[in-house]
Write a structure and sequence with these properties.
The chain is mostly helical and 325 residues long. It has two domains: 3-52, no CATH class; 100-296, Rhomboid-like fold, CATH 1.20.1540. The chain is built from 16 helices and two strands. The chain has a two-stranded antiparallel ribbon with strand order 1-2.
Amino acid sequence: MKSSTLVSMLLLVSALSVGYVRSDAWRHVAPTITTHVFQQSGGEDFLELRGGASKRRSNKAKSASLNSKSRTATGKKKVGATAAEKKSALSDTMQRYKRIRPLTRIYITMVGVATLISIIFGEEFTQSLLALDPTRVFYGFEFWRPFTAASFLGPISIGWLMSGYYLFEYGSSLERAYGTAQHFVFLISQVFGLTFLSSLTGQPFFGQSMITAMLHVLSRAMPHQKVKWLIFTVPYWSLPYGLMASDVLQAQSAMAALPHILGIVSGHFYHFHKFIWPKKGGEDWLVAPDFLVRRLDPDSKDAARESVSKALKGRKKNKGRKLGG
């Protein structure tokens, strides 16, 4: 602020201090001093002293807001925001994908790869490369065919989407219920069983049979539980047959029931030898090996050992049978 401005301000303060503001002369002097101060300081310093907003700052704020709006209107910031949103959506999708159970995630990835091959190279090439052919498997050593036959769900359609959802839902439920190691044994047993059954019936792919086998094993765990299917409330054991009936009605052909029948037969084979035969005194030969459990389910193995040790410690004394008795 200039020296003349300071002098004018001192005059104004001294006038206020002596009570000059009460006299009538203040009405004539105050406008003159105020005008002089405002003119000498350019108006802005005075406004700053009295707590007002300066024109320069208000203009800067307006220009900054206009520039920000213009930057948004030009699309630069908007493109960056869109890229950030795409990146966050992609990372969120990848996080959800990684949260899927390991074997179910691998199976879904195989389904995606088989579908991508069919889109790129066409149906004819897919049939020749991925379909189950016992001659090529045993004599041509093309051992990938049983696994690709289990992974191809057909071209992309509403049925493909529903089958992929069922695969995720039933596969995740089985793997969560019995553990990754035991689920691996289940999948391997189904691949071998359905390879044999599909070779007998001439089915080139059995991905739908795998899904039905999963559903059958799940339904046998709690067969009489009531579940909602479409608009009906049905017992859980009837869901595989309901899925088969819906595919038959949609295809208008009884041959659409064949993949489901194979899946029910193969799934029941696993369920009988895993859960029923050991109760009859037979050996559970479908149990997951220890090395596989240690590799895939280390935490569950430790939890099982802890539960067994707690059960042994909790047993009452003098309640067991003597050896040789």
